[in-house]
Amino acid sequence: FITFGSSGELYQIGESVILSLDESDDVVEETSTSKTYSIPNPFTDGFEIVSAKTKWLIITVYDQFGHKIYQSEFGDTQSHTVDLNTQIPGIYFAVLESNNTREVFKQVKF
Fold this sequence. Notes:
By secondary structure, the protein is mainly beta. 0% of the residues lie in helices and 54% in strands. The chain has no helices and 11 strands. The two termini are 23 Å apart.
């Protein structure tokens, strides 16, 4: 699991299941219905995030060590291309945020 933010959200990487902590620190599972996916995975130069439902506001990509290497606003579209051609092969985490939703995708660059 990876923790993002100060409110204790925990996210299961690689699936569209969101786990968070409630007020009593119990884990609550929320199934994502945003129908968001990333292609291709694995990738060589970059990947595209596509959403059929949610309009994302911000996409942030972290490397496997937690360093932020990319951030961009989605704008008014339902897809966004992330260019990581200057990054070395490895594991990356794309964090998508809207007003009240956050999803994390594990991406592999080879």
